[in-house]
Design brief:
The complex is a heterodimer of chains A (116) and B (686).
Chain A lengths: L1 E8 L2 E10 L4 H13 L4 E12 L1 H17 L3 E4 L3 H9 L7 E3 L2 H12 L1
Parallel strand pairs in A: 2-3, 3-4, 4-5
Antiparallel strand pairs in A: 1-2
Helix pairs in contact in A: 1-2
Chain B lengths: L1 H32 L10 H22 L6 H29 L8 H30 L5 H22 L6 H19 L10 H35 L10 H46 L7 H16 L3 E8 L3 E7 L3 H13 L14 E2 L1 H4 L9 E9 L2 E10 L7 H47 L10 E8 L7 E9 L2 E9 L4 H17 L6 H13 L8 E9 L4 E7 L5 E4 L4 E4 L15 H4 L3 E4 L5 E5 L1 H4 L10 H12 L4 H16 L8 E8 L1
Antiparallel strand pairs in B: 1-2, 1-5, 3-4, 4-5, 6-15, 7-8, 8-9, 9-10, 10-13, 11-12, 11-14, 14-15
Classes of the chains: A alpha/beta (116), B alpha+beta (686).
Chain lengths: 116, 686
């Protein structure tokens, strides 16, 4: 079960992911990111502080946007991950591909840098 | 066989008794006319008559009463047939008499007596067959009391039979009392007419006809027997008139009264029989609707049956059935009305803003007749509409039309409403069944995928004097995407792989087979692990759909220089036990899963790693199903528990290690049910 909230802050779309993302709930995450991109936000920040678990399908969602966001020049930064979740990202080698920071200001800063 | 023999014996008995009766009676009569002492006892004829009657009684009992296959009309037909034969035989004798003319023989009392006896025997056999048939009709729906009354009645008749043959004539009051009792019983018994209700219209007419003919026979025999006995009596007053015996009178009364009752009851039931038949048809139609699903029919046939049944139940002149479905568009079934005509009616109602009924949203039955009056040029004057509801949702409407004004009464509305409800239930059941079939098919496909997936795993693993390998894979109900394999590259090099395909189900199995193909083709080329990954990624990047990836770790064990070279692509870190230090550790290194990055940059994201192995070292390869296995408290098995499970038995064989890991895993999860895929490959060096 996952609960996804979206909040706009200083031109960035902040997507808060609360709960667990498995194969079935990954669709919601996919939808949220697709919406955010569709609505033309220039920065996407994903708040993972309340994310308890993410399955490979959930990781697949983030992964599937990497190239699209690169092409559109929209930086996506994930922040506030719990250790266990961060571990999942790093094992799969996604840490190399995604932008991950520990806090929100850092994330915002990174996004700003990437936007230029 | 036994009953057949008994019937024949009884028939023979009755004929013998009758012959003796005729002979003795003629002898008695002759001696009386001649004023001579009789050569045979005077009581013999009447006793013989009784025996004749009893034999016939039992004969019919076996013939008619025990035959279960006879229907009501069959029974009446039997009575009629017996009557017909008896009458024809009697008429033949009459013809003979007529041909002889008015000779002395014809008017001789002895000859007349013979004719009398023949007619009497025929009459009695007819009466007895009718008696047995009536008995069956009366006792069709028996109660305890009815059976008792019948027994009393039969007993009375039996007494009357013997009372007649005993020559001592008790006072006439006694016989009157017997007759009154029997008459009362006859009336009580004759009230049992339940069988009439089960006859349909045609059967009722047949029964009336048969009964009418039976009346004719009764009348004919009564006349014949009485006239002959009166004639003989006029010559010889001492003549024994068996026809006036109490038993015979009672029997005649019973047969006659019940026949009259039946006749009248059937006659008065004629007008209502169509109603009964209608009701019966409704029940049958109702069953047809509810059973239409079980006989592998489709929704369409349910609609057709509904339309047919409703029309016949209320005698509608026309009807239509409109079914709205999102997927297939709307379906239209009509009965004696063109689509154009029904369209006109619907448009007309729409114009008059009649809410409900023909609207798909309505859930109530509506009588819309009053709105029809304003539609010019329409032949219909009555209209009712019923919704067809499936799972609380109106899926269609049934409209019934009549040319008569006020053509539908409440009863009719109720019946059709029942039909519509039942049709709704049938369709709901039908859809549920369809769903079940679909699920079943899906399950079947999954089963196949699972078999495919299982068959992709190696049945035999490489072995070497330098190491032993054991592996296990257990999967949940779903099809997982865990893969492991081994391949000997050359004498001193063996390639190992463990991989996990993201996602589950049939696609996972397909991707797994791709991975297997890649492993078997690339491993033979003696590539460096990093190069292996780079090429595998290139091959997979365009095969996997968006969001799918494969995590894998590829090893080359070189027994010549005792090294393990490996490259990890997003797979769970290897658990390694170093025997010299008696320590376990996860090998931390860099590597991104296969299929995530399409560009050639991928080579940057994986690396070559190398380590030296020594005898006693253990390498545990596994998938995340193991580390993510959960217990009841929703805790994960995690890396440290896996590490501990290895540490406990690290000195033992690879099989022992495998066993221990599985055992610890099950102990932890607390159930024997698997909710994920557990896959592991253990390499023990020696």
């Amino acid at each position: 079960m996952v609960h996804i909230k979206r909040l706009q802050e200083g031109g960035a779309d902040i997507i808060s992911v609360i709960g667990e993302i498995d194969a079935s709930s990954s669709i919601e995450l996919d939808l949220a990111i697709a919406k955010s991109v569709g609505e033309g936000f220039k920065q996407i920040l994903v708040d993972c502080s309340a994310l308890e678990y993410i399955s490979s399908a959930g990781l697949g969602v983030f992964m599937s946007y990497i190239e699209e966001l690169k092409d559109k020049n929209i930086p996506m930064v994930l922040f506030g991950m719990k250790e266990k979740v961060a571990n999942t990202f790093s094992i799969l080698g996604l840490a190399e591909l995604l932008h991950i920071t520990t806090t929100k200001p850092e994330a915002k800063k990174l996004a700003d840098e990437l936007s230029v | 066989m036994k009953t057949k023999a008994i019937t024949r014996l009884l028939f023979l008995g009755s004929i013998l008794a009758w012959l003796v009766l005729v002979f003795s009676d003629i002898t008695v009569l002759y001696s009386e006319i001649r004023q001579l002492p009789p050569g045979v006892p005077k009581w013999l004829p009447s006793v013989m008559l009784n025996i004749f009657i009893l034999c016939l009684f039992y004969y019919y009992r076996y013939q008619i009463e025990k035959d279960e296959s006879l229907s009501f009309t069959d029974l009446l037909w039997k009575v009629f047939a017996t009557g017909l034969i008896a009458t024809v035989v009697s008429l033949v004798f009459r013809l003979g008499e007529f041909l002889i003319g008015t000779t002395r023989l014809a008017s001789h009392p002895l000859f007349k007596d013979l004719i009398y006896q023949i007619n009497l025997a025929l009459f009695l056999s007819f009466l007895l067959s009718a008696y047995t048939s009536w008995k069956r009709l009366i006792l069709y729906q028996k109660s305890k009391w009815l059976i008792r009354i019948w027994l009393v009645f039969e007993l009375c008749l039996f007494l009357a039979l013997w009372y007649d043959s005993i020559q001592i004539t008790v006072s006439s009051t006694a016989s009157t009392i017997i007759i009154v009792i029997i008459a009362l019983l006859v009336i009580v018994l004759s009230a049992n007419m339940r069988w009439v209700a089960y006859l349909n219209f045609k059967q009722k007419w047949t029964s009336l006809l048969l009964l009418m003919l039976s009346f004719f026979y009764l009348g004919y025999f009564l006349f014949t027997v009485n006239s002959i006995s009166a004639f003989i009596n006029s010559i010889d007053p001492a003549f024994q008139d068996f026809g006036s015996h109490i038993f015979n009178v009672c029997l005649l009364c019973f047969v006659l009264v019940y026949s009259i009752f039946s006749f009248l009851v059937i006659l008065f039931n004629l007008p209502t029989s169509s109603v009964f038949e209608q009701k019966l048809e409704e029940v049958v139609n109702f069953q047809r609707i509810s059973q239409s699903i079980q006989t592998e029919q489709n929704e369409e046939s349910v609609y057709n049956i509904l339309l047919e049944s409703s029309v016949s139940a209320v005698f509608a002149d026309a009807a239509w059935l409109e079914i709205e479905s999102a997927s297939n568009g709307s379906k239209f079934f009509t009965y004696k009305i063109t689509e154009l005509e029904s369209q006109q009616i619907r448009n007309h109602l729409k114009q008059h803003h009649v809410k409900g009924a023909l609207d798909q949203s309505s859930d109530k039955t509506k009588n819309l007749s009053k709105y029809l009056a304003s539609l010019k040029g329409s032949r219909f004057r009555s209209l009712i509409a019923f919704p067809i509801v499936v799972k609380g949702e109106t899926i269609g409407t049934l409209a019934l039309l009549k040319e008569l004004p006020e053509g539908f009464n409440k009863e009719m509305m109720r019946i059709v409403s029942n039909f519509a409800n039942q049709a709704g239930i049938s369709i709901e059941n039908f859809r549920l069944m369809e769903q079940a079939f679909q699920t079943e098919r899906y399950k079947e496909e999954l089963k196949i995928a699972k078999t495919v997936q299982k068959s992709l795993l190696p049945t035999k693993l490489e072995s070497d004097p330098d190491f032993e390998i054991s592996a296990f894979a257990q999967s949940a109900d779903e099809v997982g995407g865990d893969y492991y394999d081994t391949l000997r590259i050359n004498e001193h090099q063996v390639a190992l792989i463990i991989a996990d395909v993201s996602g589950k189900g049939t696609t996972a199995a397909f991707h797994m087979s791709q991975m297997k193909g890649i492993f078997h083709s690339l491993a033979q080329q003696e590539l460096e692990p990093k190069e292996f990954m780079a090429r595998a990624n290139r091959a997979l990047a365009f095969c996997l759909e968006r969001g799918s990836f494969i995590s894998a770790t590829y090893f080359i064990v070189d027994t010549k220089i005792k090294t393990i070279r490996y490259s990890r692509a997003g797979h769970c870190p290897v658990l390694y036990y170093k025997a010299s230090e008696k320590k376990t550790a996860y090998l931390k290194d860099k590597g991104t899963a296969l299929g995530m990055v399409r560009s050639r940059d991928y080579t940057r994201l994986v690396e070559n790693n190398e380590l030296q192995y020594e005898p006693g070292d253990v390498m545990v390869l596994y998938t995340d199903g193991i580390t993510e296995a959960k217990n009841k408290k929703n805790e994960e098995f995690d890396y440290h528990r896996l590490e501990a499970a290895l540490q406990e038995v690290a000195e033992k064989s690879s099989r022992e290690i495998e066993k221990n890991i599985i055992q610890r895993l099950y102990e932890f999860s607390g159930t024997s049910l698997i909710n994920d895929d557990y896959t592991s490959m253990i390499i023990k060096f020696r």
